[in-house]
Specification:
Length: 350
């Protein structure tokens, strides 16, 4: 039976919707709309709806399927703002991506949990679902592997969790280490004493600690031996007890180095191993200890593996696009290699 004009008109009316977001004052409106409405422009790019700002309110109108999720994002950002979170372009873009990807239900609690407050009063919170999963995994496992591209916060958040564990008296020491693979861990040819030789490789760890603790507290804890930063080679033969241990740049460990490190775990300790499989600097033919360990230890009780994605990158938008472009390129190159191998096999079979 043909659909009547009234039925068609009713269906159209059902699809049309308008949502009004009310702001407390002009300051809240500017914080949520962005400088010169830059945040609203992001929403306009993401949703086919009409956005009209009138003083202390924002009207969103159009089809219900577009209006409702856009209004949901604005209300969640308003909630975050009232909880004390400074709204940045990241929160807006990530919220749009999350809702458009069908994961809007995770938005409400995503940014709201404060893990730690830095010396400068900065509230450290997870900024992506990947980061939230990463932090939860660290809390509930003795050993956690954090794998993903640069800019996903793997190292910084591991240091945050280490400082939080020390503040809560869960551990007595914080130990941070990296492989100095660029020099093959043979540092003799570099100028200066041992500390000066390894400092360039450990600088990111120093920077993270100083940002979280402040220079004075960091210096005092270093002097007391509460914080220890050393190249991976110096972990051999030790048993690390009541410590929070972080191995950074783990993609540049060999299989033997990784096994050595993992077996240093002592009672009352936790380990976090971070790395980016896309940035292996080992000599050709040398197996990455990170890649091997995550394969061998997959499913082992007490060990968690978190893989972050390009969407978890907290940097300039261009950096996210660079990571995605490289991922696409590497995938295409792999497919070409596989096709060439298949072609060669066919030729040999002729």
């Amino acid at each position: 039976m043909a659909e009547s004009f009234l039925e068609r008109k009713g269906a159209l009316l059902q699809k049309a919707a308008e949502e009004i977001i009310h702001f407390q004052d002009r300051q809240e409106a500017e914080a949520l709309l962005g400088h010169r409405d830059e945040f609203i422009k992001v929403l306009m790019d993401g949703f086919d709806a009409r956005f009209i700002s009138r003083g202390d309110e924002l009207s969103i109108s159009g089809e219900e399927a577009e209006v409702v999720p856009a209004a949901e994002i604005m209300r969640e950002l308003q909630y975050l703002h009232r909880q004390g979170t400074a709204i940045t372009m990241h929160e807006v873009r990530y919220s749009v991506g999350l809702v458009k990807g069908g994961r809007g239900e995770a938005l409400h609690n995503l940014f709201s949990d404060t893990i730690l407050v830095t010396s400068r009063g900065k509230h450290v919170r997870p900024k992506t679902l990947g980061q939230r999963i990463y932090l939860d995994t660290i809390k509930h496992n003795s050993i956690t592997f954090g794998i993903g591209p640069a800019g996903t916060g793997k190292t910084y958040l591991a240091v945050v969790m280490a400082v939080a564990a020390h503040r809560n008296r869960e551990v007595e020491k914080i130990i941070l280490t990296r492989p100095a693979v660029e020099a093959g861990e043979r540092l003799g040819f570099l100028p200066g004493d041992l500390q000066e030789k390894v400092d360039p490789y450990l600088r990111p760890l120093y920077d993270a600690l100083q940002d979280i603790l402040g220079l004075d507290t960091y210096t005092k804890l270093m002097a007391k031996g509460v914080i220890e930063i050393a190249p991976l080679a110096y972990m051999r033969g030790r048993t690390l007890e009541n410590a929070f241990v972080i191995l950074d740049e783990a993609q540049n460990t060999t299989d033997k180095q990784m096994k050595m490190f993992l077996t240093r775990l002592g009672f009352g300790s936790r380990m976090v191993i971070t790395g980016d499989p896309g940035q292996v600097d080992l000599p050709r033919g040398v197996t990455s200890g990170l890649l091997q360990a995550t394969e061998i230890l997959d499913g082992v009780k007490g060990i968690g593996v978190v893989r972050m994605e390009a969407m978890d990158v907290i940097r300039h938008d261009v950096v996210t696009r660079i990571v995605e472009a490289y991922d696409t390129f590497e995938k295409e190159q792999k497919e070409k290699r596989m096709a060439k191998m298949a072609e060669n096999k066919e030729k040999k079979g002729e």
